[in-house]
C-alpha cells in the first residue's frame, strides 16, 4: 500500500487562508496554507486509478496556542522536571537547554543568570568552548562519560552503574568524574527516566561511601 502525504512538515506553514481577510482577492486566489493543502489530499487520492493510496500529513502542525499559554506551559514543564530531580536527590538541577548553533552568543545570558554550573555536551566544538574563556568565564572542568545509555529503554541497576563508574575511576580522579547519563533524556519516557535516575543517584552515593573509606 502506498501513502500520499504532504511533501514536508507543516510546522512552518500558516494554518488557514480564510484567516487572511485583508489580502488582495487575486493574490489570495494564488495561495494555499495548511488547511487548503490538506483538503487536496483526498481529492488527489480519488483521482488516481483504483483510489488505493492512503492520505496523511507529514511532520508537525504549526503551534495553535498563544505565546502567553506557550510560556506558561514551558514554565510548568520546567517546574515539573526540577521537582522530579529534587525528589531524586540530584546534585545539579538541569532545566534549560541552550541552542547549539548560538553557543557563543548565549555566554552573556548565562552570566546574567548567575549560573553556578554549565554543562556542555561533547557535540560542542573546541572553537565554541574557547568562547567561554574569551568571555572571561572561569570554571573547574569535570568529565561525565555517562554511566548508562539513554538511547535504550532498559533501566540499569544501581550496581551496574556503580561498576561502570568504578572503571572510569581507574583512569579519572574522583574530583573530576561526574555521575550522569550519557546524553540528554528527551528520548525517554518518565517511567524509564525516574527509576534510572534513582538508581544512578544510589550508585553515586555508594561510590562516595567507598571513596570515604
From TrEMBL:
One Pfam family here: Meth_synt_2
Domain Cobalamin-independent methionine synthase MetE C-terminal/archaeal, chain residue ranges per copy: 94-205
Gene3D superfamilies, per database record: 3.20.20.210
Keyword presence, Metal-binding: yes
Keywords, sorted A to Z: Metal-binding, Zinc
Cofactor(s) listed: Zn(2+)
Domain of life, per lineage: Eukaryota
Entries under InterPro entries matching the protein: Met_Synth_C/arc (IPR002629), UROD/MetE-like_sf (IPR038071)
Protein name: Cobalamin-independent methionine synthase MetE C-terminal/archaeal domain-containing protein
Gene source species: Sphagnum troendelagicum
Amino acid at each position: 500500500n502506498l501513502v500520499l502525504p504532504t511533501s514536508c512538515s507543516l510546522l512552518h506553514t500558516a494554518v488557514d487562508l480564510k484567516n487572511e481577510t485583508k489580502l488582495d482577492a487575486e493574490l489570495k486566489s494564488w495561495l494555499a496554507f495548511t488547511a487548503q493543502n490538506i483538503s487536496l489530499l483526498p481529492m488527489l487520492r480519488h483521482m488516481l486509478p483504483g483510489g488505493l493510496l492512503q492520505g496523511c500529513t507529514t511532520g508537525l502542525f504549526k503551534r495553535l496556542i498563544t505565546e502567553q499559554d506557550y510560556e506558561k506551559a514551558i514554565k510548568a514543564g520546567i517546574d515539573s522536571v526540577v521537582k522530579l530531580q529534587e525528589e531524586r536527590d540530584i546534585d545539579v538541577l538541569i532545566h534549560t537547554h541552550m541552542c547549539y548553533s548560538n553557543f557563543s552568543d548565549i555566554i552573556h545570558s548565562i552570566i546574567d543568570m548567575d549560573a553556578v554550573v554549565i554543562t556542555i555536551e561533547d557535540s560542542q566544538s573546541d572553537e565554541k568552548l574557547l568562547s567561554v574563556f574569551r568571555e572571561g568565564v572561569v570554571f573547574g572542568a569535570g568529565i561525565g562519560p555517562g554511566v548508562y545509555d539513554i538511547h535504550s529503554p532498559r533501566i540499569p541497576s544501581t550496581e551496574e552503574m556503580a561498576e561502570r563508574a568504578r572503571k572510569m575511576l581507574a583512569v579519572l580522579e574522583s574530583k573530576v568524574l561526574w555521575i550522569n547519563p550519557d546524553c540528554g533524556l528527551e528520548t525517554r519516557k518518565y517511567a524509564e527516566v525516574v527509576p534510572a535516575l534513582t538508581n544512578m543517584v544510589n550508585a553515586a552515593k555508594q561510590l562516595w561511601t567507598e571513596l570515604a573509606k
